[in-house]
Amino acid sequence: MSLLQRADSKSPEREEETPLENEMIEYFVSFVQMLGLPKSVGQIYGILFASTEPLVMDDIVLRLGISKGSASQGLSLLRSLGAVKSHMIPGDRREYFAADLNVSRIVHHFFEERHLHRLENGAERVEAILSEIDPEGGEDQKVLHDRV
User: pLDDT tens digits, residue range 12-22?
Assistant: First the structure.
């Protein structure tokens, strides 16, 4: 179905995913869950990754059988990670979404946005701990210094 046909389509019927789409969705679900993100985020990215054309949120909701709230939150998170781009089609007020296919850049961005500051903070904490330990201050201090 072309983008213009899809824009004219108001059918509430749920389209079933193909076996290939199901595999892609499950792959991304397992990946995002490993990162501590909600299942719906992986489902949304998976269906967009598998789609050759951008989808509107209503299509995503119908295809995945998730709530509009879950779809909205998932799309918002994916957009903040740079994993999803939105498009507008002239004559259609709906927002269309497409997956950014550069998965390695998305993963890098995820870790940079969400975990880099924690790692940097962890290094600062280790330095603070070490500054409190006197390796010459006795056996306990030496053991603690070696552990850290």
Answer: 555 677 888 89
